[in-house]
Design a protein that fits this description.
0% helix, 4-stranded antiparallel β-sheet, 7-stranded mixed β-sheet, single chain, mainly beta
């Protein structure tokens, strides 16, 4: 079955950078959308960034656009989230998610995604 494993979380100061990685196995990921979501304490899980492997399109939430970059390593089994200029409000558990689809639509809702990693904590202090 499909498995997603995140790595790269940690504790940093405001303004620092972190790079998260997600390695996928058990599926044909060339027809997947891969996304990064995050969930802060007491808040709903929210979309941060996504990449559609069929179209190679990347898309972002307004809160991270210009600071975060989602990318792959060419195999389409690994997706990274480069996070620059981190802010305390970026503190959350970050989840990798996957959706098997032939659609070019840029899905943003957690309920649209089929597979999830276990999450990795990112803490940004001021």
């Amino acid at each position: 079955q499909v498995q997603l494993v995140e790595s790269g979380g940690g504790s940093v100061q405001a303004g620092d950078s972190l790079r998260l990685s997600c390695t996928a196995s058990g599926g044909t990921f060339s027809r997947y959308i891969m996304g990064w979501f995050r969930q802060a304490p007491g808040k709903e899980r929210e979309f941060a960034a996504g990449i559609n492997w069929r179209t190679d399109m990347t898309y972002y939430s307004e809160s991270v656009r210009g600071r975060f970059t989602i990318s792959g390593d060419g195999t389409k089994n690994t997706v990274h989230l480069q996070m620059n200029s981190l802010k305390p409000e970026d503190t959350a558990i970050y989840y990798c998610a996957g959706k098997s689809t032939y659609s070019p639509y840029n899905y943003r809702h957690a309920s649209d995604f089929d597979y999830w990693g276990q999450g990795t904590q990112v803490t940004v202090s001021s």
